[in-house]
Amino acid sequence: MDYYQKKVSRWQRHMKMYSEAAAMVNITVTTHEATFDPDAGWVKFHLGINRYALYSRDDPSVPRLLQDMKSMKVINADYTQDEKALKGACDCAQVVKPSGHHLKLALKMHNLGKVMFKPMRQQRHEETPEDFFYFVDFQRHNAEIAAFHLDRVLDFRRVPPVVGRLVNVTAEVLHVTQNEDLRAVFFTSPANKRASLPNACTCVRRSTPCAVVLTCWRARCPPTCPGSASHPASPSQPWIRSYTFSGQEEWEVNPFYCDTIKQTYPYNTGNRLLNIIDMAIFDFLIGNMDRHHYEIFTKFGDEGFPLHLDNARGFGKPAHDEMSILARSHSVA
């Protein structure tokens, strides 16, 4: 816990220097106090992660954590690590990025908890257009929320807590971010809405609905938390789809592909392959065709479970069953 106490002190020093530098050039900045509570919901949640699930069925920290994520004050906003890593790292003329063309932000709460912000891109009743490829589909904030609750109903407990929240983009993003690149991409549209242009235009209301996702897999954890939580393994999903407009992957054309996978580490030992099949069933139920990677806590070795992350492209066609998502289970069976 000393780590977080030092982090609070470092934050306060940083805010003081930031305010003094801004005052020298006659710029007004908003600063917020940071605190650390060892009994905070996110701390208790992290301490409860084990090799079977992110949380237990009766974990009392989950309801408290959801309430904190919905109402707690935001003290900083920045691009996510994925956004930073992907910035300029892909030639989209050759292959479409599997992520990075929708606005996603990392928000820091005043108790040092971190969440991911995904704004509403579609109305809840809207569906994926018929002529959209799966890798350019909209990322829906309500899909993240629904996926979390379905994951709980199915008793997987592998989706980090997600809650809906109204975020004031001006007060809770622009006024607290210290990233000049992030601040520069926002502007006011002719309809007097806040809009951003990270890679593709994202228009949002000044107070926009969003999904707030706990970043339990990338946040720094206390020493007794899974040590690899800040740097998890992220292997490619064996049944990954092609992210080009005309290509096909080997599993789509090779009838013996699954036999090869079953003899390949780590799918030839432990329960990894069975967990991948569970993930396929989950993806089928939410209609998510965009499962290109999965993440695991390496601390738990081969017996760890894959996290069910990035579900925003689910629920786009609720009346359509995409049977190809179940290719993993068909092949193994």
What does this 3D model show about the protein?
The chain is an alpha+beta fold and 333 residues long. The protein folds into three domains: 31 residues; 178 residues, no CATH class; 83 residues, no CATH class. The chain is built from eleven helices and ten strands. The strands form three sheets. A five-stranded antiparallel sheet has the order 1-2-3-8-4. A hairpin with a 5-residue loop joins strand 6 and strand 7. Helix 2 crosses helix 3. About 10% of the residues have low confidence. This is FAM20 C-terminal domain-containing protein. Belongs to the FAM20 family. It comes from Mugilogobius chulae. It is found in: Golgi apparatus.
Q: How is the topology of this model organized?
A:
Blueprint: H1 2-24, H2 41-47, H3 61-71, E1 74-79, H4 81-86, E2 105-109, E3 114-119, H5 141-153, E4 162-168, H6 169-174, H7 180-184, E5 186-188, E6 194-196, E7 202-204, E8 207-214, H8 250-253, H9 257-262, H10 272-286, E9 295-296, E10 306-307, H11 327-332
Antiparallel strand pairs: 1-2, 2-3, 3-8, 4-8, 5-6, 6-7, 9-10
Helix pairs in contact: 2-3
Keywords: ATP-binding, Disulfide bond, Glycoprotein, Golgi apparatus, Manganese, Metal-binding, Nucleotide-binding
Subcellular location: Golgi apparatus
Family: Belongs to the FAM20 family.
